[in-house]
């Protein structure tokens, strides 16, 4: 605790603001980072290219499909209107249909080839088979080789356009917004100040070598891992360790690239550069976890695979049976009808429509979906692993306890707030905020002074008031108040208030737990979901927060390289884990988890490593994700049954299974059923718009929902 006590100094706030300026300029390093991690950057770009591709293909082919459908002879017969007697009009549908097949259908044809090569027929094979059979049969019917019943130009055009719409929606839902590895690289400063003899020169961090000495000024980021050789400063390591307060680093201590010196200048001898730095190690962990994450095979693809074999077998049986009874021409017509009628109009929209509406509803509820597969997995999560700092807590100190030696609590707090009024240190802001919250009248202070690692002092109404940590007491030859020992045991920061050379009291400050965190934990327990907390903070701090919230299990003092392994250990025990975090130190764990959920107020790298992003810092939004996942999955399965049900019923009828009793499904009726199936799927997906995903509504819904299983409550164990 002594290092934490020593971190009280007036300069922290000003230098932190300088650090924010460094964050903004450091973004320029993304361009250099793309050279190192082009694969990930390209990955994000490919999603954007696919969105633009399918959007362009959809609108162009829709424009071609309208005249192709309206000028199709079969479609005109279906709706009962006559085509005008214009020379060459009969060739409009074939010409436009050919363009739609070759241009709009190309993504599905190439996808079908890839699926066949991989011996995993799915949606692409089913679509490719349907449009190819329709294309060949339609040309044969147009040229008089086959019956006019097999002219499917309008069916071909509609299938391609609807499938392009579905894939446009799908690609848009999968579009990536940022790269985790580029965001990690952006933590490094643009320049390093290298000591060269008696002068200091600015050089790129990449040019540093082992043994170089660099100057890290207040508010600047450390350019490389190394050892402090001169100076002492409070270093903000929260982006690496998750520790909620700066840590005192002095001569002989190690510092890590990307961390910030908040109050004083340091000289650091470089002992690790490039791939050997801690930051590079985190980058590797993120890359490994991302590349090893398996995407669940989409339900629509599985259904399409089943329907492909179903339609193919049905067509073969149709040809065999109708040829055996002596009507080969009728057998060909029935078999082609079977293959075309199996086209998945509704199936192609069943999942993308639900995903599109789900993501739109989620955004309105403050939940941004980056990874559809992650959203689907959220419904089976049985363990939610929260980072502590900035997630369950506010990530900033707040006044918790006051002890006095003869004056009132309010008077002590007013004196302390007066002395701290000119300081911008986070602890000073916490004290002044507490005084303001209690409506205290804070007197004016004069002769303000600040001393690094000691505290602040000022003259308040004729009395000399000093506020600081243990070094302040040592300087005055005073002893800490006995009442503060339990505060230290709970991990609080203890500041003593000295008035005219005597201890007047003490203030206990700690990272404040969010009220929303209590509600979120209770609601997750109501759903039968275990709640685990992980933090880089010391065990007393972690245990205190865990006990206050009723956390089932606590991992304390965990370094970044161990966070992902903690997630893996939970997964190894058979648990499906959702990780919720907001810092760089959480990035590997977010990528390793079955579902990574990033607090949107956190760092870019945490957001990039996650599949789900909470736009607010309200931990109850995790319940919104669970509710959305379960409701969305229910709509997906309903739509798949509606869509596949049409094919399952229509294919045997198109094959002529009821021909012995005089009924054969006409193509026109099949088209009506197909359109009806598409309408039902679209209407069912729209019902998701009624879902209220606000944190309050989702929390209330969790308490009303049936419990999946009892949470494994423990007495806050650590690991």
Automatic annotation (TrEMBL):
Residues 1-12 have a biased composition (Basic and acidic residues). The keyword Nucleotidyltransferase does not apply. The chain crosses the membrane at residues 57-76, 88-104, 125-146, 152-169, 303-325, 331-355, 640-663, 669-688. InterPro entries: ATPase_P-typ_cyto_dom_N, ATPase_P-typ_P_site, ATPase_P-typ_TM_dom_sf, ATPase_P-typ_transduc_dom_A_sf, ATPase_P-type_domA, HAD-like_sf, HAD_sf, P-typ_ATPase_IB. Residues 1-23, 699-719 are annotated as: Disordered. Pfam families: E1-E2_ATPase (PF00122), Hydrolase (PF00702). Keywords: ATP-binding, Cell membrane, Copper, Copper transport, Ion transport, Membrane, Metal-binding, Nucleotide-binding, Translocase, Transmembrane, Transmembrane helix, Transport. One of its GO terms (cellular component) is plasma membrane. The keyword Iron does not apply. Residues 187-286 form the P-type ATPase A domain. PROSITE patterns: ATPASE_E1_E2. It comes from the Bacteria. GO terms for biological process: copper ion homeostasis. GO terms for molecular function: ATP binding; ATP hydrolysis activity; copper ion binding; P-type divalent copper transporter activity. Belongs to the cation transport ATPase (P-type) (TC 3.A.3) family. Type IB subfamily. This is Cu2+-exporting ATPase. It comes from Flavimobilis soli.
């Amino acid at each position: 605790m002594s290092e934490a006590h020593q971190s009280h100094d007036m300069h922290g706030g000003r230098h932190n603001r300088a650090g924010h300026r460094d964050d903004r300029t450091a973004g320029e390093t993304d361009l250099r980072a793309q050279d190192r991690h082009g694969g990930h950057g390209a990955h994000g770009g490919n999603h954007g290219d696919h969105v633009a591709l399918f959007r362009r293909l959809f609108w162009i082919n829709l424009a071609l499909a309208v005249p192709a459908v309206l000028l199709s002879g079969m479609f005109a017969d279906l709706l009962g209107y006559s085509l005008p007697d214009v020379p060459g009009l009969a060739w409009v549908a074939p010409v436009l249909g050919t363009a739609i097949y070759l241009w709009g259908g190309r993504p599905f044809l190439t996808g079908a080839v890839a699926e066949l090569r991989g011996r995993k027929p799915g949606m692409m094979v089913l679509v490719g088979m349907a449009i190819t059979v329709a294309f060949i049969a339609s040309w044969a019917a147009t040229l008089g080789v086959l019956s006019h019943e097999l002219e499917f130009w309008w069916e071909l055009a509609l299938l391609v356009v609807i499938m392009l719409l579905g894939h446009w929606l799908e690609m848009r839902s999968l579009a990536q917004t940022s790269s985790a590895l580029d965001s990690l690289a952006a933590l490094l400063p643009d320049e390093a100040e290298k000591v060269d003899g008696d002068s200091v020169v600015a050089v790129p961090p990449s040019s540093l070598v082992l043994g170089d000495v660099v100057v890290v000024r207040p508010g600047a980021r450390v350019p490389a891992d190394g050892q402090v050789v001169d100076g002492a400063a409070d270093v903000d390591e929260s982006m690496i360790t998750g520790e909620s307060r700066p840590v005192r680093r002095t001569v002989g201590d190690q510092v890590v690239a990307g961390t910030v010196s908040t109050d004083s200048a340091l000289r650091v001898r470089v002992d690790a550069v490039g791939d050997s730095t801690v930051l590079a190690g985190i980058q590797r962990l993120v890359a490994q976890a991302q590349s090893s994450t398996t995407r669940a095979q989409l339900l629509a693809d599985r259904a399409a695979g089943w329907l492909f074999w179903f339609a193919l077998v049905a067509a073969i049986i149709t040809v065999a049976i109708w040829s055996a009874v002596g009507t080969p021409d009728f057998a060909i017509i029935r078999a082609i009808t079977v293959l075309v009628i199996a086209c998945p109009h509704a199936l192609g929209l069943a999942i993308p429509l639900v995903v599109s509406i789900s993501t739109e509803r989620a955004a309105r509820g403050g939940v941004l979906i980056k990874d559809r597969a992650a959203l689907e997995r959220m419904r089976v999560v049985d363990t939610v692993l929260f980072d502590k700092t900035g997630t369950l807590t506010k990530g900033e100190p707040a006044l918790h306890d006051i002890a006095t030696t003869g004056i009132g609590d309010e008077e002590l707090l007013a004196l302390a707030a007066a002395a701290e009024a000119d300081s911008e240190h986070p602890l000073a802001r916490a004290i002044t905020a507490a005084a303001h919250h209690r409506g205290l009248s804070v007197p004016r202070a004069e002769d303000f002074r600040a001393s690094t690692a000691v505290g602040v002092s000022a003259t308040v109404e004729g009395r000399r008031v000093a506020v600081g940590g243990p070094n302040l007491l040592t300087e005055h030859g005073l002893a800490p108040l006995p009442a503060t020992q339990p505060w230290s045991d709970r991990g609080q920061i203890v500041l003593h208030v000295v008035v005219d050379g005597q201890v007047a009291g003490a203030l206990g400050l700690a990272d404040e737990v969010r009220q929303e965190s209590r509600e979120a934990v209770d609601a997750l327990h109501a759903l039968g979901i275990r709640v685990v907390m992980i933090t880089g903070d010391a065990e007393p701090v972690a245990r205190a927060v865990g006990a206050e919230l009723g956390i089932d299990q606590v991992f304390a003092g965990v370094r970044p390289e161990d966070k992902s392994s903690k997630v893996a250990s939970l997964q190894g025990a058979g648990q499906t884990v959702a990780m919720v975090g907001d810092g760089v130190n959480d990035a590997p764990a977010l990528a390793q988890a079955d579902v990574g959920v990033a607090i949107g107020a956190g760092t870019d790298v945490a957001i990039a490593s996650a599949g789900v992003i909470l736009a607010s810092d309200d931990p109850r939004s995790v319940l919104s994700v669970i509710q959305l996942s379960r409701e969305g999955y229910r709509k997906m399965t309903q739509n798949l049954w509606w869509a596949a049900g049409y094919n399952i019923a229509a294919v045997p009828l198109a094959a002529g299974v009821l021909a012995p009793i005089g009924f054969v499904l006409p193509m026109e009726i099949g088209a009506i059923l197909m359109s009806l199936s598409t309408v039902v799927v679209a209407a069912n997906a729209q019902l998701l718009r009624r879902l209220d995903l606000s944190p309050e509504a989702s929390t209330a819904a969790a308490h009303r929902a049936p419990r999946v299983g009892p949470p494994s409550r423990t007495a806050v164990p650590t690991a």
